[in-house]
C-alpha cells in the first residue's frame, strides 16, 4: 500500500517525461539509442539466447550495457539533500535500466545507496537505503523482477569524492547501479 | 575505599588486541573562571619518577574537568612540603584552596605503595588520606582513581577519570585505508585496538555494565551488528537480517539490544532479546526510524524519525507502542543520547547554522545549543553526566571534543594523524 503513496507521483511524472521525450527527441542520440536497445532486446527475447545480449548479423554478442551512447551508461543517480526522490532528469536513465532488466531476466544488479557527510551517520545509512529502494521500486515498475535487484546502503561511509563543498556533497548523494 | 581502589586496579582489561601508537592529545580550549585552585605535589623529599608521573596524571585529570584550576609550582609558598605537616595559612595566602600531596615508595620488586593526602586549606582540615598498592603498569590507573576521589571530595560529583572511551579511527588512503575500533583511557592514553578492518566500522556502544561493545561492521560488504567481549576479545555477529542492521543500543540490564532493521521494508526500530534471539518490531512507520536509545528505566525508547518531513527525536513507550515527538527546535535533531540520570537528552541539532550538539532538559523542555562547530556529531555522556564527548570537524579532519553539559568547559582530543570519530564513553566500572 504505502509503496504506491510515493510511487504514484513518480509514476505520473515519469509518464509525462517519457511522453515528452518521445515526441520531441526523436533525433536525439541517447533516446534513439534507448529505442534501439529496447528493440534489440525484444529480438533477443524472441531468440533462444535468454538474457545477456543480442546477436548481431556477424554473430558477435553485443550488450546494450556496453553501448557508450545508451542511457544505460548512466550508472549513478544523484539526489537532493535529505531526499530519496529520484529527480526528473534521472528518470529516463532509471527507466531504461528497468526496461533492460525486464528483458534481460538473467541479469542481476546491485543498487548501492549513499549519502553525503551532513547529518548523523546512522540516519544517513537509512537514507542511503531509502534512496536505493526508491530506485529499486522504479525498476520494478518498469518490469524488473525483485529477485534481480540487491539493495545495500553504505550511508556516508563511502564517499565518491572527498570534500565538503556543495559540488562534492552533491556527488556523494547517490545510488550506484552496479551490474 | 582503599579496598575498592585496589580491586578496580587489579581488574584491568587485559584482552585488547594490540597497543596502538597514536595517542590522543588533549587540550583544554575553555574552562570556567571560578575553577577551584588546587596544588598537586610530591613531598619535598620525594623526587621519584613514579611520583612525578602520578602528580602529572592527576593534575591533568583535575585540570581537564575545567572545574579545578591546578596551580603552577612557582606559586607555592616557600618551605618544605610534608605529607602530614601543612602550613595552612601559608598556602591560603597564595590563593590556593586545596592541596593534594602524593608519595610513592617501592615496597618490593615492581610494587609501590602510593599514598595521597588531600587538605582543605579553607577549612584547615585534612579531607582525604589513603594508601594504595600498585605495580608499575598500574600507576596511571591508580592516578586516575585518585583523581576520581579527589574530584568527588572537592566538587561533590563522582569523578569519571578512570573510565574509558571507545571510538573509531580511519587512517591511510586508498587500498591501505584502515578502520579501527579503539578503546582508550578517558585522558586519551593507552589506546588499544579492539577490532581492525579494511571495511567501514560505525556506531560503537558500550554495554550498560561496560563489559562489551556492540558496533556495526561492513566487513561483509553490508551493515551487520557485532558484539565483542572486552575481557576475552571474542566477537559474535548478532544481526545480519536482509537490509539494514544498525544503530545498536543496550537495554539498561544488557538483556536486550534495540536496533534498526529494514527487513520488513522501511528502517524501523526493533528489540532483539540477546538470550533467545527473538526480535520484536517496535515501530512500523513509513520513512526512516533509527538511532534508538533507552530511557533510564528501560520502559521507553528515544529514536530519530523523519515522519514529520525532517529528522526529529521521538519518545516511544515500549508497552503501548505510542510515539510522541519531543524535539521541536530546529529542522534537524537526531542521534539522541541520554544523560546517566535520565534528565538530559543530548542530540545533533541543526537550525541552519551547522550541525551542533544541543541539550534538551527533559524536566522543563528547555533546549540549549552547547557547541559551535559545523559538523558536530555523535554525542555521548560521561558516566557522571558532567561532560559530553562528540566528534567535530577541524581543519579538514575529524577530532574528538568534550564539552560540559552546560557548555562552559570544552576540551579537545586530537589524534596525531587520521580521523577519529563516534566516541562513546564507558560506564563506571
Q: What report would you give on this structure?
A:
The complex is a heterodimer of chains A (179) and B (429). By secondary structure, chain A is α+β, with helices and mostly antiparallel strands. Chain A has one domain (2-178): OmpA-like domain (60s Ribosomal Protein L30, Chain: A, 2-Layer Sandwich), CATH 3.30.1330. Chain A has five helices and six strands; from the N terminus they run H-H-E-E-E-H-E-H-E-H-E. In chain A, the strands form two sheets. A four-stranded mixed β-sheet of chain A has the order 3-6-4-5. A two-stranded antiparallel ribbon of chain A has the order 1-2. In chain A, strand 1 and strand 2 (61-62) form a beta hairpin. The longest helix of chain A has 23 residues, at 2-24. Chain A starts with a helix and ends with a strand. Residues 1-54 of chain A have low confidence and may be disordered. With 429 residues, chain B is mostly beta strands. Chain B folds into two domains: 31-155, TolB, N-terminal domain (Rossmann fold, 3-Layer(aba) Sandwich), CATH 3.40.50.10070; 164-425, TolB, C-terminal domain (Neuraminidase). Helices cover 11% and strands 46% of the residues of chain B. Chain B is built from four helices and 31 strands. Chain B has helices at residues 2-10, 49-64, 88-93, 139-155, and strands spanning 18-19, 24-30, 36-42, 68-70, 98-108, 111-120, 125-135, 164-171, 178-185, 192-197, 201-206, 212-217, 224-229, 235-239, 245-250, 256-261, 268-273, 279-281, 289-294, 300-305, 312-317, 323-325, 332-338, 344-350, 356-361, 366-369, 377-381, 387-394, 397-404, 410-415, 419-425. In chain B, the strands form seven sheets. In chain B, strands 1-10-9-8-31 form a five-stranded antiparallel β-sheet, with no helix packed on it. In chain B, a hairpin with a 4-residue loop joins strand 6 and strand 7. The longest helix of chain B is centred in the middle third of the chain and has 17 residues, at 139-155. Chain B is elongated, with a radius of gyration of 23 Å. In chain B, 48% of the residues are buried. Mean pLDDT of chain B is 91; it is low at 1-22. At the A-B interface, helix 4 and strand 5 of A face strand 23 of B.
Amino acid at each position: 500500500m504505502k509503496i504506491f503513496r510515493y510511487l504514484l507521483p513518480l509514476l505520473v511524472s515519469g509518464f509525462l517525461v517519457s511522453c515528452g521525450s518521445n515526441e520531441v527527441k526523436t533525433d536525439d542520440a541517447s533516446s534513439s539509442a534507448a529505442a534501439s536497445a529496447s528493440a534489440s532486446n525484444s529480438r533477443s527475447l524472441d531468440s533462444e539466447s535468454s538474457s545477456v545480449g543480442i546477436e548481431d548479423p556477424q554473430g558477435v554478442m553485443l550488450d546494450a550495457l556496453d553501448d557508450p551512447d545508451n542511457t544505460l551508461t548512466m550508472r549513478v543517480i544523484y539526489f537532493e539533500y535529505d531526499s530519496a526522490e529520484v529527480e526528473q532528469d534521472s528518470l529516463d536513465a532509471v527507466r531504461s535500466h528497468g526496461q533492460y532488466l525486464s528483458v534481460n531476466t538473467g541479469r542481476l544488479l546491485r543498487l548501492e545507496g549513499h549519502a553525503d557527510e551532513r547529518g548523523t551517520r546512522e540516519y544517513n545509512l537509512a537514507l542511503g537505503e531509502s534512496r536505493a529502494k526508491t530506485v529499486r521500486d522504479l525498476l520494478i515498475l518498469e518490469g524488473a523482477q525483485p529477485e534481480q535487484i540487491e539493495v545495500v546502503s553504505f550511508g556516508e561511509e563511502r564517499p565518491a569524492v572527498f570534500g565538503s563543498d556543495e559540488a562534492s556533497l552533491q556527488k556523494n548523494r547517490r545510488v550506484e547501479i552496479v551490474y | 575505599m582503599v579496598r575498592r581502589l585496589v580491586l578496580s586496579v587489579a581488574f584491568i582489561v587485559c584482552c585488547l588486541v594490540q597497543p596502538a601508537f597514536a595517542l590522543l592529545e588533549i587540550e583544554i580550549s575553555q574552562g570556567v573562571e571560578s575553577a577551584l585552585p588546587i596544588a598537586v605535589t610530591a613531598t619535598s623529599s620525594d623526587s621519584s619518577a613514579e611520583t612525578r608521573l602520578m602528580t602529572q596524571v592527576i593534575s591533568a585529570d583535575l585540570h581537564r574537568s575545567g572545574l579545578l584550576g591546578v596551580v603552577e609550582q612557582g606559586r607555592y609558598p616557600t618551605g618544605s612540603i610534608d605529607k602530614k605537616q601543612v602550613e595552612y595559612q601559608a598556602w591560603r595566602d597564595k590563593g590556593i584552596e586545596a592541596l593534594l600531596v602524593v608519595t610513592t615508595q617501592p615496597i618490593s620488586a615492581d610494587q609501590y605503595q602510593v599514598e595521597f593526602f588531600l587538605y582543605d586549606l579553607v577549612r584547615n582540615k585534612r579531607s582525604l588520606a589513603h594508601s594504595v598498592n600498585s605495580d608499575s603498569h598500574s600507576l596511571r590507573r591508580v592516578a586516575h582513581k585518585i583523581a576520581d576521589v579527589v574530584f568527588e571530595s572537592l566538587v561533590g560529583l563522582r569523578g569519571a577519570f578512570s573510565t574509558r572511551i571507545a571510538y573509531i579511527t580511519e587512517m591511510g588512503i586508498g587500498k591501505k585505508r584502515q578502520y579501527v575500533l579503539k578503546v582508550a583511557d578517558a585522558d586519551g592514553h593507552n589506546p588499544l585496538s579492539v577490532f581492525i578492518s579494511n571495511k567501514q566500522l560505525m556506531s560503537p556502544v558500550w554495554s550498560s555494565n561496560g563489559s562489551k561493545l556492540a558496533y556495526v561492521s561492513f566487513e561483509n560488504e553490508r551493515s551487520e551488528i557485532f558484539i565483542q567481549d572486552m575481557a576475552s576479545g571474542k566477537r559474535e555477529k548478532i544481526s545480519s537480517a536482509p537490509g539494514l542492521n544498525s544503530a545498536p543500543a543496550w537495554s539498561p540490564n544488557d538483556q536486550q539490544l534495540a536496533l534498526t532493521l529494514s527487513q520488513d521494508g522501511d528502517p524501523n526500530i526493533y528489540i532483539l532479546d540477546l538470550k533467545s534471539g527473538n526480535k520484536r518490531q517496535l515501530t512500523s512507520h513509513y520513512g526512516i526510524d533509527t538511532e534508538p536509545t533507552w530511557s533510564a528505566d528501560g520502559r521507553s525508547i528515544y529514536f530519530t524519525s523523519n515522519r514529520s518531513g525532517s529528522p526529529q527525536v521521538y519518545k516511544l513507550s515500549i508497552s503501548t507502542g505510542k510515539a510522541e515527538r519531543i524535539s521541536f527546535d530546529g529542522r534537524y535533531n537526531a542521534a539522541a543520547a541520554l544523560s546517566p540520570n535520565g534528565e538530559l537528552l543530548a542530540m545533533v541539532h541543526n537550525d541552519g547554522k551547522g550541525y551542533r550538539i544541543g541539550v534538551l532538559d527533559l524536566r522543563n523542555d528547555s533546549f540549549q545549543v552547547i557547541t559551535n562547530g559545523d559538523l558536530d556529531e555523535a554525542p555521548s555522556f560521561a558516566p557522571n553526566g558532567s561532560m559530553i564527548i562528540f566528534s567535530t570537524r577541524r581543519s579538514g579532519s575529524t577530532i574528538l571534543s568534550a564539552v560540559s553539559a552546560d557548555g562552559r568547559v570544552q576540551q579537545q582530543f586530537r589524534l596525531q594523524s587520521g580521523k577519529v570519530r563516534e566516541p562513546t564513553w564507558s560506564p563506571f566500572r
